[in-house]
Amino acid sequence: MIKIAVLGFNGALASAITGIVDMLSLVGVSWQRIQNIPVHSLFQVKISSPNGQPLDCINGMHIAVKHSYADVMDADVFIVPTIGREIIQTLEANTALITYLKNIPTPQKSIAANCTGNFFLAEAGLLDGKTATTHWGYAELFSHRYPLVHLNRNLLISRDGEIYCAGGGLAWFDLALHLTERFYGIETAIQTAKAFVYHRDALQTSYSLLNIAKAHQDQLVKKVQIYLSDHLKQELNFDDVAMKFNVTNRTLIRHFNTALGLSPHQYLLALRIEAARKYLEETQHSIEQIMQHVGYSDASSFRRLFRKKTGLTPVEYRRHFSRQIIHR
């Protein structure tokens, strides 16, 4: 059984704690109950705080805690929830968490954070030189404060080695599915999404969540991934892209296929759809504005590709997954 430790702190968003705890605790369980088969849990999930004290979350919410950070050091995965209060003040008030994160042995252990919780990972230096994402509304603050981090604001989920970052405020749902897929496979992730009545056709009909966030050590591919993210709006020719990195297009294709199981062109399409999903979930930008942000000028081809990859039109997707939240 995989052990999960949620590293709570004062000023957290309560739903980002209770939501991922409920979901991961019920991975496998809900589906087994629906199918009337014997029940067994796949994840053991514990909420912790610096000294095992109750958590003072925002909006008057308090969460009882049975475990201190020291009690959960044997966990396989550590998750930092969303910051709900003012970010810098919350970081300064929770130095114990930052110190704890610095002492978690990686890559033996996996570390994940949701939304603004990714500021804690960056503050601990865990994201230096790595690709990360965060909530779009705080991307400028993040980039200014952590210049050594390769911030890709277009991703819902980023993975670099054993460090995971989830983007939007409620992206802990995607993070939970990602971790489920990573440890127990795509079918279990799909069963979990169905059990929670979560319309995530993209898990099955397009590409695995792991594909564009797949960990690898190919430095050429990493550099090109950053370049593609930075030039997402532009019309790109991969002969020109390959030339920028002093390789042939054939060499670039071979590196991408080996590292990610995708060609550069497939990766770019997946990245653009992922970016469009994030804009639809987290902003009120018009479909036309989103198209331009992700490098499309033809509305019909964009809608056709988006539906092919997600099973929904952009309008339908926004209706299902809009994630406008308020931070206080």
Automatic annotation (TrEMBL):
Keywords: DNA-binding, Transcription, Transcription regulation. One of its GO terms (molecular function) is sequence-specific DNA binding. The keyword RNA-binding does not apply. InterPro entries: Class_I_gatase-like, DJ-1/PfpI, Homeodomain-like_sf, HTH_AraC, INH-QAR, Tscrpt_reg_AraC-type_HTH. Pfam families: DJ-1_PfpI, HTH_18. PROSITE patterns: HTH_ARAC_FAMILY_2. Residues 222-320 form the HTH araC/xylS-type domain. PANTHER family: ARAC-FAMILY TRANSCRIPTIONAL REGULATOR (PTHR43130), TRANSCRIPTIONAL REGULATORY PROTEIN (PTHR43130:SF11). This is Helix-turn-helix domain-containing protein. It comes from Acinetobacter cumulans.
